Input
Amino acid sequence: MNEFKTAGILLAAGMSSRMGQLKALLPWEGRTLIQYQIEQMKKAGTDEIIVILGYQAERLQNIISAFHVKTVINEKYEQGKSSSIRKGISSLQEEAEGIFISAVDQPVPAGVLNKMIKHLKETGAAAVIPIYKNKRGHPILFHESIKNDLLLINEETLGLRGVISKFQQQTAYLDVNDPSVLFNFNKPEEYFTSDRRLQMKVSEIDVVTPKSVKECLYFLSDKEKRVRLLAGGTDAVVRMKDGIGRPETWINIKGMDSLRYIREESDGIHIGPLTTHTDIIRSALLWEKADVLASASNEVGGIQIQNMGTIGGNLGTASPAGDTIPPLFVLDAQIELSSLHSKRIVPITEFFNGPGNTVLQPGEMITNIIIRPQAENEIGIFEKLGPRKAQSISIVNVAISLKMGEGPRECLEGKIAFGSAGPTIIRAAKCERMLSLGPLYDNTIRDIADIAWKEVMPITDGRATAKYRRSMTSALLARGLYRLMKRWDEK
Output
């Protein structure tokens, strides 16, 4: 008897207009939703996976390229989900007896998919629909015998609902005892209040406390468990409340003093990943030779967050709004990543893959951060837009570091990095090239700031619109440059 083959069609072509941001890139279980969905289909042994893209297709292709799945572009994605389903069905290459159709905002673990495959194989039903507490869920697993009906669906005939209605008598409903089959994230409140966030209590999570880096790396190398590092916990607590990134085991490294230091060596200033924002604020060395980083830490949240939050945590979270990350860009930071059997150095420009995503591999952790000390003729500043009273994350921020010459306001070169203005930190290359074209008097500063909005790629979310963020990048850059020149004049 031939092996029972399955295919998966993942729908990710829409604009996510009701969510306010691209749903495919929302964090889920330590990765993005689209990556999670593909990963679970692969774990379930799906023989062929086709991802249907449309809006921001190139951006999503880059994010999922490592999975080596087939992508199909639906240029008519605005016509609705049915057009993407037809694209997917017509693009199938393999002969599959079961065909999953799943939307990118409906994450379901591989265990549920396996149960559905087994049930379709045993019953020969026209379709298998998972249920939880008597409620119908998704994805739907269709038998290949109704492939032609799927090729003919359209919005006028109710799409998939029309097909299910036609084959109602031959459809099997499978109780999978998993609330994830009910997830459907169309709006922010649906994403942030999903039942999965309530499934695992903190008391049910194991905690281990290694005494050394080597012991920590040993725990991290455990491939049988889902583990996660816990340092300051300022981000982890928020993410746990949202049900994101809950592990089976926390590795508590908060007390590992061997990773908490600031010292100058021949190749630069070394900063341990467990160094807190307060440590940075209190460091005379950093105020003297990395003032842009020290001033950024001074803007992180309130005193409690500064006492608990760590620079390594800021890097690992990989938020484009992280306050200490733009300064690390202008200071040419190098990130040391260690695993149980190896160590590598990654330039910060290559560390981030996207929002919430880094090049960290399973079993790796950040063990050192090396930054370039500023020269005597170099000055830096960090500017942030955000309601300080609420101690919120940045709406937009910018780090600037300038090397000054001997002439009045003569800038030899400079580096500018924007945060919260794109999927990752953005270096303002055009603005940087203009810094050395003439003395940084007010008119020159205005000219430089006027082109800043062209360099960023902001999104609209609950904190600000993309248009507002573009305007504020120019305003923040101008303010930072004015303040730096005032400080240089007074030096």
